[in-house]
Structure formats: structure tokens, C-alpha cells
UniProtKB/TrEMBL annotation:
Primary location: Golgi
Taxonomic lineage of the native organism: Eukaryota, Metazoa, Ecdysozoa, Arthropoda, Hexapoda
Taxonomic source organism: Drosophila yakuba
Protein's recorded name: Heparan sulfate 2-O-sulfotransferase pipe
Bilayer topology term: Single-pass type II membrane protein
Superkingdom: Eukaryota
The entry's keywords: Glycoprotein, Golgi apparatus, Membrane, Signal-anchor, Transferase, Transmembrane, Transmembrane helix
Protein family membership: Belongs to the sulfotransferase 3 family.
GO cellular component, one term: Golgi membrane
Length: 278
């Protein structure tokens, strides 16, 4: 039978640095904010350098070496966060850090990305920094994801094994685990996914999902206590502090849920009656 120690890659780390190879659009901002809250409690430091770098889907060996070297030169008890595929530190004769990441339902990621790139705040910053860039038409901002897919818009076409992208939309979640080899590039590739699975099994301490927050925090807390001790308790304490000011709003929320369930039960009861009494 499986034991926690059999699934614990934290012990394989060769230096006290946490490397969050952050997938795009998986709810990672919530985990980043939470780690910033935990750093004083658990005596570690979140390094911001990687979060300010322009994202690239893959890096040349020299750039990988520079990133690995930067992490190696951080103080012990440091967290490095970047939208970047897994790096093999052994290739650069450097000790291995603790790897973590998050994943999300692939289609939900794409829907999130679709509306993220249409975000007015994001676009205001882009055009402020790139005043000569052509403005997107109003129709582009207003088009729904549903219409984008149904109209065959290239932005919403996800062609299996495609290497070149019409739009840079980070649709390859597996590439963050597969790495920087050419085999990792084809979209929805069985080979790339198998490589990514092997990396998760052998290299990553924890790959969680914010869709299962409680489970993810529990596993992080027990498998990487150096950074995530008391994570679940602190996370829920913060929520409880906020909930205290929402007592009547919660009363309304639960009332609506109860009514929805009653409507659903009534529908099912009618269906059962039809089946039993034609």
C-alpha cells in the first residue's frame, strides 16, 4: 500500500529553495498572495524577480542556466516564482530545488485566458507601454468565448499537434512540466503529456489545484512543512475573519441554494413518478 513517504519528492531536493514553475491561469495569484502572507510566519522569503519577467513558452539553454543560477544564489529559505517550464538543474551542475505547481481544468483555463486578454486594465497598461501598437477593434473586446469558438475564429481553435500559434494563449498546460525540449511543443501531444507526467512523478513535490483548495493546502502543509506549516489553519482563519461580517449575506446565499435544491428535487420527483406511474 502507498505511504506518504513513497510519494514525497521533497526529500530529493538538494537545496532549500522553493521553485514555483507557475502555470498560467490556474489561480496561481491566490497561492502567491497566500505565500506572501506565510513568509513571515514560516521564516522564508518570496523573491519577486521572476514575477516581473516577460513570459516565454520555452527558453534556450543559456537562459535556463541563468534562471537556475539565480535561484541557486538566493538565500536559503527563498521562493522563486515564474511562468516557466521545468528546468533540469543537473544539466547546469546545480543542486535541485523543491518544485511545486498548480493545474486547472484545461478548458476553464482557456476561457479564463480569453477574458483575461480582454481585460481593460491589462490593455490600458499594454497601450500605455506600447503607444504605437494598433488598437484592437471594439468587436474583439465584445466577442464572447462562445461566439469565438462557434465562428471558427483562429484565436479559439486548438489544433492537435500544432507547434506554431496564431495567438499566444498558453494552451499547453503540460509544457510547464514537460520542459524546454522540442518534444514538448506540439499541442495536445501524447508524448509531451507522458513526459510531463514523468516529471510530476519524479521531480515535483506537490502539484495541486485551486479547484480542490482544502486538499491542496493539506498536501502542501504535510509534504513541504518548511514553507507551508499551518497553511490550512491560517487560510481558513482569514476566511473566518471575513465571514464574520457577512452573516446575513450568508443567510441569503444558503437560502437561495436551498431553494435551488428544492426545485431540482421537485423535477426529479416528477420524473420518478412518470417512470413508476405511466
Amino acid at each position: 500500500s502507498l505511504t506518504p513517504s513513497q510519494l514525497n519528492n521533497t526529500a530529493k531536493a538538494e537545496m532549500d529553495r522553493l521553485f514555483f514553475t507557475r502555470c498560467a491561469k490556474v489561480g496561481s495569484e491566490s497561492l502567491v498572495e497566500f505565500m506572501e502572507h506565510l513568509q513571515d510566519i514560516n521564516n522564508f522569503q518570496v523573491d519577486k524577480y521572476g514575477m516581473n519577467k516577460k513570459s516565454k513558452r520555452q527558453l534556450k539553454p543559456l537562459a535556463q542556466a541563468a534562471t537556475a543560477g539565480y535561484i541557486y544564489n538566493l538565500d536559503e529559505g527563498s521562493v522563486y516564482i515564474e511562468h516557466i517550464p521545468w528546468i533540469d538543474f543537473n544539466d547546469y551542475n546545480l543542486p535541485k530545488p523543491i518544485f511545486i505547481n498548480l493545474v486547472r481544468d484545461p478548458v476553464e483555463r482557456m476561457i479564463s485566458w480569453y477574458y483575461y486578454v480582454r481585460n481593460s486594465y491589462r490593455n490600458a497598461i499594454f497601450y500605455r507601454n506600447n503607444p504605437l501598437a494598433p488598437l484592437k477593434p471594439t468587436a474583439w473586446f465584445k466577442k464572447s468565448y462562445n461566439d469565438c469558438v462557434r465562428s471558427g475564429d483562429p484565436e479559439c481553435q486548438y489544433v492537435p499537434l500544432a507547434v506554431r500559434d496564431v495567438e499566444g494563449n498558453f494552451k499547453r498546460q503540460s509544457i510547464f512540466f514537460c520542459g524546454h525540449d522540442q518534444d514538448c511543443l506540439p499541442f495536445n501531444s501524447p508524448l509531451a503529456v507522458q513526459i510531463a507526467k514523468r516529471r510530476v512523478e519524479t521531480e515535483y513535490a506537490v502539484v495541486g489545484t485551486w479547484e480542490e483548495t482544502n486538499i491542496t493546502l493539506t498536501v502542501l502543509e504535510h509534504y513541504i512543512p518548511r514553507y507551508f506549516a499551518r497553511a490550512k489553519m491560517i487560510f481558513h482563519n482569514v476566511k473566518a475573519m471575513v465571514r464574520r461580517n457577512f452573516t446575513h449575506e450568508y443567510d441569503f446565499y444558503y437560502f437561495c441554494k436551498q431553494r435551488l435544491y428544492m426545485q431540482y428535487i421537485a423535477l426529479k420527483r416528477t420524473e420518478l413518478e412518470r417512470m413508476n406511474f405511466p
